[in-house]
Each structure stands twice: as structure tokens, then as C-alpha cells.
Amino acid sequence: MVVTLIIVCEVGFWVLLAAGLALRYLAGMRRTGAAVLLLEPLLELVLLTVTAIDLKNGATADWKHGLAAVYIGYTVAYGHYTITWVDGHVAHRFAGGPRPVKPPRYGLARARHEGKLWLRTVLMAVVAATLLQCAIWYVGDGDIGSLRSWQAVTLRAVVLHGVIALTYLLWPKKDPGRDATADGEAAGPRQKTLR
């Protein structure tokens, strides 16, 4: 039941997002569209409640409960970011809004961008690990190995994403357009023209 609810919540996220944006930009009902978008957190609240009830009714804590906690953590950390990104693209495409700013591709600006995304992953892991720890305390002496393994998964995600983000800082990608200009100027002294 929990896995089905996770799938329903994910589908519901995208359905609410599409409905909210359609109301905002296609139907011109900006406030109603915003209200629909504000319903998104209710999906996670429903998932959290059903997961807790499932455990309270004696279900063995397993991978489904861990996945639910990670899904909630991911939505808390990346949900608003995703909605804002999609909203910007829809506003540009259908409402004459400005072209969305693309993330930087080169240099320290890209490293900062990746660092901010990594901080979102840290938030995801903190939320998920906290929910998992609450579930561990709630279960008590029962089988909690699966919940502990999901806590390890969130830690591995933070470390892996951190290493990837760090590579952008240690080895920043250079702008090829800028390098070509710099190379052209540094190619050597200008030749004198003969008259």
C-alpha cells in the first residue's frame, strides 16, 4: 500500500503542477492556479500519515517505509525548486514571460550552483534521516535494519553529490568562447605591416 501511495503522490505532484500552471497561464486564473500549487505539500502529509498508520498497525518496517521517508525528504528539498523551474518555462512559453535563466556552465559560478544543489541534497538527507529515526523510535524493538539502511543511503547520496559538486570547484570548466579570445590575444606580438 505504501509503494502505491508513493506512486500516487508522485503522479499527483505532476498532475497538480500541470493543473496549477494551466490555470495560471492558460485560463488566466493566477490566484486559483497558485492555490492549486499550494496543495502540493498535502501529498507529502498524506504519505507521512499513511506510513505512520501502517507502522502503528503492526506492519514490519521495511524498504517501503524508508523509500517513503526519502521521497518526502526529496520533495521538501527539491519540490519548490522544481515548481519554480517549470513555472518559469511555462510562463515564458505561454504567457510571454522572460526566458528562464539557465544555470551557469563555467567557472566558479557553476561551482556555486552545484554547491547550492548539494545543499538541497543535504536538506533532503536531513529530513529523510530524521523521519527514519522517528520511525525507528516508533517501532522500538522491532526489525529496524531496513530503516537504518535507508539512513545510510541518504548519507551516501550526500557524499556522492558532494564529491561531484567539489569537482566543479577543483577543476572548473572553462568557457571555450572566452579561451578563444584570450588565445587570440596571447598568440604573439602583432605583425607590423610593410608600406
TrEMBL record:
Keywords: Membrane, Transmembrane, Transmembrane helix
Transmembrane segments: 7-27, 33-55, 117-138, 150-171
Protein's UniProt keywords contain Transmembrane helix: yes
Protein name: Uncharacterized protein
Organism per entry: Streptomyces auratus AGR0001
